[in-house]
Structures are given as C-alpha cells and as structure tokens.
Design goal:
Order of helices and strands of chain A: HHHHH
Number of strands of chain A: 0
Oligomer: heterodimer
Mean pLDDT of chain B: 88
Low-confidence stretches of chain A: none
Shape of chain A: flat
Order of helices and strands of chain B: HHEEHHHHHHHHHHHHHHHHH
Largest sheet of chain B: 2 strands, antiparallel
Distance between the termini of chain A: 58 Å
Strand content of chain A: under 5%
Number of strands of chain B: 2
Number of helices of chain B: 19
Mean pLDDT of chain A: 85
Helix content of chain B: over 70%
Helix content of chain A: 55-70%
Distance between the termini of chain B: 38 Å
Largest sheet of chain A: none
Low-confidence stretches of chain B: none
Strand order of the largest sheet of chain B: 1-2
Structural class of chain B: mainly alpha
Structural class of chain A: mainly alpha
Chain lengths: 124, 496
C-alpha cells in the first residue's frame, strides 16, 4: 500500500473519531433534561415557522432534472477540449470536431424537445 | 501519446453502424414531432418508425448475407451473431409498434414519444448485442432499460402502469449497481474489460492469485444479468411489471429485451464465465432448476392471462438456462440452441400477447382468463391462433416450440447433464396445466354474463389490420418453422 493510501486511511479514521467523539462526549456530559428549545430542529437560532415536509410544484423537479442532464453531458466537453490540440497536431482535427458536433447536436435535440414540450415554460 | 481513437477505420464503422443511424434518426424525428408539431397525424410517427425499422432490417439483412468476416472495433463487435440478434430485435420492435397503434388509439393516448423511446431502447439493445467490452455491455443495458422504464409507465393515468415503472426502475437500478460492481472487480483482477482479452486470460487468472476477486466479480455480473433475464431468485419484479405495463410494452420486454439480455449473457458466458468451470456449472444448473420450477408452479395459480404469461416467461428463461452449463464443453451447440429458442420464443410470445391486446382494446383491460369463455364460438380464428401459440409455448410437436425445446435439451444431454433435462421435461409436463386451461375455457366453458365472463371489451371492435398482421406473421412463423425446423436451424448455424 502506498503512503498516499495510508494518509487517506488516517484521514478517515480521524474524521470518524471526531464525529463519534463529539456525540459520545455530549451523551456522557449532558444532563439528559429535555426542554422545548433543545427538541426544536436547529434553525440557526430562529424559531421554525412550519414543517419542511410540504409539497413542491413538480416544475422544480423538472428544472432540476433538465439541469442534471445538460450539466453532466456538457462536462464531457472538457476532456474533449483538453485533447483537441493533440488531434489537430496529428491532422485529425476534423474528425475530433465532427465527433463533438454530433454530440452537441444530440444535446440540442434534447433542448428542442424540452422547449417544444413546454418544460422551460414556468408560467403555464 | 496519440489516442487510439484515430486508429479506428471510421468508414467501415460508419458502414456497420448505418442501421443504427437510421434508427436514431427515426427516434430524433419522433421526438421532434412531439415537440414541434401541434396537431400531428396519429399515424405518421408509427408508420415512420416502421419504415425506419424496415430500412435498418434490410441493411442488416444484407450484412448477414454477405460472406465478409466479422469486424471488431474493440468496444463493438459486428459478427454474424450480433447481426442476427439485431435482426430478431428489430422484428420484435416492429411487432410491438404494430400492436401499439390500435392499443394506444383505443385509449386516446397517442404520443410520438412512445415510438421514439421504443427506438432508443432498440438502439441500446444494438450496443448490448454487439458489445465487445464490459463497459459497452453496461452502456447498452442502461440505454435499453432507461427507455423501457418510461415506456412501462407510459399510461400515466393508470396506477398499475406507474407502479410497474417505479418497480422496474428501482430493481433495474439495483441490478445495474451489481453489474458495475462486477465489472470493477473483473477489471481489478484481470486488468481489462475487453471481452476478447478476458477470454484469453481468464484461465490464467483463475489459476493465479486474483482468482477470488475474479470469481466475485463474475458472481456480481451473474446477479446483474439474473435481474435482467428475470431468473430466480431475481425474478420477483417480472409479474408486476409485465402486468402493469401497457401490453405492447410487455411484448417488447418479453421478446426484445429478453433476447438482447440473453445474447449478451451468452457472449459473456462464452468469453468470461466458462473459465469458472465447475463453479459456473453448479450455479447455472441450480439457477435453471429454480427458475423453471418457480415459474411453472406460480403460473398454475394465475387467474390473469398477462400474469400467467409473465410467469411462463420466467419458466422459459429457466429452460434457456438449461443450455448454459453446456457452454463449458460445447459453446457452439449451446449458443445455437439458445438462439433457436429465442427466435421461437419471440414468435410465440408475441403472438400470445397479441391476443391479450385484442382482449384489452376497451377502456380497461379485462385480462382474466375467464373472460376468454366462449371465444371459440364468437371468434373461431382468434381462438385457434391463441391455441396454436399456447401449444407452441407448451412444446407440442408440429410447432416451433417443440423443436426449440428439443435442441436445448439435446445440447444439455450431449454435454452430460441428463438430470437437468429430466427436471426440465417434468417442468414441461407441469406447464401443460396452465397452457391448456385457457384453451379449455375458450372452447368448452359456457360464458355466464352475470359475472362478466366472455366478451372481453375489445371483442366488440373489429380486428385492427395491424393486429391481424401480427397474428398472421407470428402464426405463420410458428407453423412454418415447426414443420421445417431445419430452415431455422440452418440460419442459426450460420450465425454462431
């Protein structure tokens, strides 16, 4: 096992020890008395104003899903951009460009579909 | 460092992938139609889909006939096997499309996306059956399944359809995790995910110190595939999903998805698993016996013909698994028997489900077996075709189902698994009960309208020409290849 792997293991061990330790210490030192303030969900010192378990409009999920899809797919362009010069130097620039264009074309198709189906239309 | 990318012969890859591009273009048109056309003609997308499938079929058929040797691009392998299975998949997709037209029209739920998703799933299967690399196997399975998850829940106003989609999605995601884990372990012990490399080195790895990791990875892969082909003990999702999904989608799942998964399993079996020797044989035989027994016994008590066919599909997966232990000693024989069976199974299952589609052409889906009472009098031709398909599923001689079973069991006997075949034959005898029951109900039971027997709602409609086409093609196929099995055998022998 390399030295790097060991340092990661040490980090894991420390993190686990701190997390467990804090819980243990408060369990041992605490009085165990319950009060309203203690049982309230922690809200940075403010009183909670309602239950968080409310129903959201499905539009939020739609936007989130669209974001994930396009975001993750666009990330694939980074490695492409990194190696593009190498391809160009080897005289295969056109090929690399075509591949990326096809990929973007497919993405565009998805965008047109989402747009046409009204997924980007918040008001409706 | 120059990427390998440029060493690929792009023009021949384009040539080989042309049918895929046709399918993708059709899917793109379907989605664009959904997005851009306000009042679409309800027949445009399905007809366009059928045309695309026909073009892809013709192109691939030409490829299958050509004497050129198979081509390997590392990630993708285009050999006779992959082209042949791809043809089978296109055939099942076409059948599903034909059945979908009247089915969706009867529900007033005509959406172009439906056909687009179907085509994308077909594309995933293409990757799956041509996969030359474990990662491609995974990619193919994901593309195939993701589209089918949505299709299973396509009738979104039906609770059962939603339930089917959710169940299928959760179980499918679970299975994918197993597959990925297995791929990781195989890669860790073998240093490659390429099937050709693995096939060369697996014996050596099994003898070396990476043995336990390799076996663990292979076991994970087996579990993943077990879910996909609905083998016991990973079958529990199948009846609910088959029952809740729209019937044409059920046809697609029972034929195309199953065939694609089985062929990928076969390819993996030949290249990766068979080095496992004894372990592989034990696991697969136990799995085959359990799958057959559970599928057949559970099918007996079903009152709903869709669920009955779902359990029967589990049982058939068990029969196919009977040939898998033989891969170690006789890969060619086992492969051919499995291909023959899959072809026959597609024909008879698609036909049987087509009759279920007819039963459910009304608003709800009355698919209880008792609804069939008196069908022999009301619709003699429909009843006769259903009888033919059920007899073929049972494996009665002049149908293709008999020869399919015969070649499977013959392979197993030749490799010395006589006990396995004995159990399989006993199971076939058990299956006679539930396959013959609808026939008895159709011809000998007098329908009592009081409890809603007889008269499936769809029966008041005239038979749609699309369904007639499906019934005619599948019935002719079952009868033709039942009388001349050597023709199909010749095709299969040329493919593996």
């Amino acid at each position: 096992m390399s030295i790097n792997a060991i340092s990661i293991l040490v980090l894991f061990a420390l993190a686990a020890a701190v997390a467990l330790g804090i819980v243990l210490i408060s369990a041992l030192l605490g009085s165990g008395r319950k009060s309203t303030e203690k049982l309230l969900p922690y809200e940075c010192g403010l009183d909670p104003i309602g239950s968080p378990r409310r129903r959201f409009s499905v539009k939020f999920f739609l936007v989130a899903i669209l974001f994930i899809v396009f975001d993750v797919e666009v990330v694939f362009l980074y490695p492409w951009a990194v190696v593009f010069r190498e391809f160009k130097a080897a005289g295969e620039g056109a090929l690399a460009f075509t591949v990326a264009a096809v990929f973007l074309g497919i993405l565009l198709l998805g965008l047109v579909y989402a747009w046409g189906r009204g997924a980007l239309d918040w008001e409706e | 460092m120059m990427p390998q990318f440029t060493q690929i012969d792009w023009s021949s890859l384009f040539n080989m992938g042309l049918p895929w591009i046709v399918i993708f273009a059709a899917a793109a048109i379907a989605f664009l139609t959904a997005a851009l056309v306000e009042e679409e003609n309800s027949l445009f997308t399905p007809v366009m889909t059928l045309v695309a499938i026909a073009v892809a079929f013709a192109l691939s058929w030409g490829r299958w006939l050509s004497p050129l040797p198979g081509l390997s691009f590392g990630m993708l392998v285009f050999d006779k096997l992959s082209v042949f299975v791809w043809l089978m998949i296109l055939f099942s997709a076409a059948i599903s499309v034909l059945l979908s037209i009247p089915y969706l029209a009867a529900r007033g739920f005509v959406k172009p996306e439906y056909y687009g998703l179907l085509l994308l799933s077909t594309l995933g299967m293409a990757c799956l059956v041509s996969a030359g690399d474990l990662l491609m196997v995974y990619l193919g399975i994901e593309t195939m399944s993701l589209a089918v998850y949505v299709l299973a829940g396509f009738l979104r106003y039906r609770a059962a359809s939603n339930e089917a989609a959710l169940k299928y999605f959760l179980i499918g995601a679970f299975a994918s995790a197993f597959l990925l884990m297995g791929i990781a372990f195989v890669f860790g012990s073998a240093g490659s995910t390429n099937l050709a490399v693995l096939a060369e080195r697996s014996t050596e790895i099994m003898a070396g110190e990476g043995r336990s990791f390799y076996l663990f990875g292979v076991a994970m892969l087996l579990i993943g595939f077990g879910f996909k082909i609905a083998a016991v003990p990973f079958h529990a999702w199948a009846p609910d999903v088959y029952d809740g999904a729209p019937t044409p989608v059920t046809v697609f799942m029972a034929t195309a998805v199953k065939a694609a998964a089985f062929v990928a399993f076969l390819r993996l079996g030949v290249s990766v698993f068979s080095a496992g020797g004894e372990v592989w044989i034990t696991v697969l035989s136990v799995g085959a016996v359990a799958t057959m027994l559970l599928g057949n016994l559970a099918a007996i008590v079903q009152e709903n013909i869709k669920r009955m066919l779902a359990y029967s599909s589990i049982a058939h997966a068990g029969y196919i698994l009977v040939a898998f232990p033989s891969i170690v000693s006789d890969p060619q024989g086992a492969g051919r028997a499995v291909l023959f069976y899959l072809f026959a199974y597609i024909l008879m299952t698609a036909g049987a489900f087509a009759v279920v589609v007819v039963m459910g052409l009304g608003k709800d889906e009355p698919t209880g077996i008792s609804r069939l009472a008196g069908l022999g009098k009301r619709r003699p031709v429909l009843a006769a075709t259903l009888t033919l398909f059920l007899l073929s599923l049972l494996g009665i001689p002049p149908t293709v189902g008999f020869f399919a079973k015969y070649y499977l069991f013959l392979t197993a006997v030749k490799s010395g698994y006589i006990w396995l075949v004995v159990i399989a034959v006993i199971n076939s005898a058990i299956s006679a009960y539930y396959y013959l029951r609808p026939i008895v109900v159709m011809y000998f039971k007098i329908p009592s309208p009081l409890v809603g027997e007889g008269q499936g709602e769809g029966e008041t409609h005239a038979l749609s020409p699309f369904i007639v086409a499906v019934l005619a093609i599948t019935a002719l196929g079952v009868a033709y290849f039942g009388i001349f099995p050597s023709n199909l055998l010749a095709i299969v022998t040329g493919s593996f």
